[in-house]
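Hi support team,

I submitted a single chain yesterday and got back a structure, but I'm not sure I'm reading the token output correctly. Could someone confirm the output below corresponds to the sequence I sent? I've pasted both exactly as they appear in my results page.

Thanks,
R.
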Amino acid sequence: MKTTTKIFATIVAGFFFVFANGQSNFRWENDYNINGGTDCGLDVHISSNGNLYATGFATDSNGASSCRNWVTIKYSSTGTRTWTTTWHPSTGCTAYNNYGKAITNTTSGSTDIIFAVGCAGGYPAIMKYNSGGVIQSGFPVTYTLSCTGGEFRSVATDGSYIFAAGYINTTSQGKDIIIAKYDLSGNLQGNAYIYNSGGSQDDEINDFKYALAGYNNAYRYYVACGSINTGGNVDAWAIYLNPTTMQPYTGWPVTWNNGGNDFAFGITNDCWGDIGICGQTWDGTYNQPFMNSYNTGGSMCSVAWIGTYTGNGAFYSIDNNRQTTQFSCIPFFVCTGFTTTANGADVLTATFNDCASWQTDVKYNSSGTNNDYGYMVLYGETTGRSFVGAKLGTNGNDYGFIRYAGANFTTHELAGSHNRSGTGADNLQIKYPLEIAYNSCWCQYDVYETGATLRPSNSDMDFSTMRWSDDPGNGNPPPCCGGQQPGKSHSNYVPPSEQETQSEIFPNPSNGTFTYRNGAKTIYNDATFIIYDGFGREVKRIDYINALEFEIDMNGFAEGLYFYRYMHGDILRSAGSFVISR
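Hi R., thanks for writing in. Yes, this is the structure output for that exact sequence:
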């Protein structure tokens, strides 16, 4: 049995929590229950303005035997609820088919516009709130075309459109994958992308991201993964989507099967743009965690990494080092999940290079033979730390938080668990329970988790959100910090629009003719513009540039994603990407 040194427990305001390495970093918990029954948070999100939101559901009788309300909550920095908005159909609520599954936001200056996705009346739906929590006219918007129901599971935004991904139920084809694009007023843009593997088998999305990468977030990806059933085995599935046409880029989607049933649970991209997926595969004896990596053309970078553990396991979440400086990129992926040992299920966290080559793996056991699961991992690029949201078995089912340092860690740096009642079965959700924020000097972290906790007085489960932080909580930031302005690191996070002074390439996408504008407003004598295809091969070079703005002729080149570097001698002035679409 593993043991952790310097363990202590503290009772504060009725909360029980345990931390390793002598650090008490639990800050607050907020519990919400509408009227008895089971309530639960399913996603938590912090905006670029530093505001915290969570979405999920709350159960209420509401004149019916069982009514599930869609609930969205905004919290203050101290953990109080600023507003709480609930919704169910005006004609009544008789089923468990109203809930928020994922949440994000756009901004209008310093004002947040909040979007959540989930299920309304049994159909995939989008909800829009103003900064005061008021549901906007016309919402929720439901997707009802050629389906009998379904749900949106993930949401992302580029600031101009909302992209929602999930599944729809059909009468003859089972569950089909759906990715739909809406404008900010809730109008469906063109046709949604629908995928059916064939026949009446179920196909489902498990993760969808608008992911950023590269210097100044120059590379932008819409990627999703899930599992498809062709009538035999279940295959892991992934797609790289063109947001303009809402169709996959050439070479996508991809499927992968190891001979049994395989599931893709998480997807992301690294700072070079390689796309990594993680999940579970059958090796003939056990369900094992696996990790694959693909280039933008849909070709697997190398053979998949498959665990060789003597027990069942899986990877549920993957993140990466998306950020690069002007001169360097150190790509790697970090995955979390579990593997079964003599101590029961242990949290398993592992790192890989950009070609799915294993670097390190670490197991975490909270206490004895209790089961521990890593549900979500986020990598903080500027801190070099990985943050895992976990369900730990310390006192039954506890909210858990584990922190690892570097890309080749050999043990955890910090671990903690929280149980509201001391021994109750609290429940951290399996997808998107975790959010990370940093202050402006990047030496402080805040971690937020949402899910459900057991009310001590009875068996009801409450919608609970909590904060962990190394902020001392006294209004004084750590010594290296000069302020409390929040920054972000989150797989679903989209930053504010680039400054007008930054360089740009337009129109993007284009049918082959682009214009590059140097936002620095400085002419770099004899500069060079280098263009690479999705495999990283140089395909075009423009030398001796002496202008603030110039044309790029890509007529004759194939459709798809291309990358560029604007160089002045050996100095990288800007980097980015563009899409040829005809």
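A quick pointer for reading it: Residues 504-580 form a domain with the Immunoglobulin-like fold (CATH 2.60.40.1220). Let us know if anything else looks off.

Best,
Support desk
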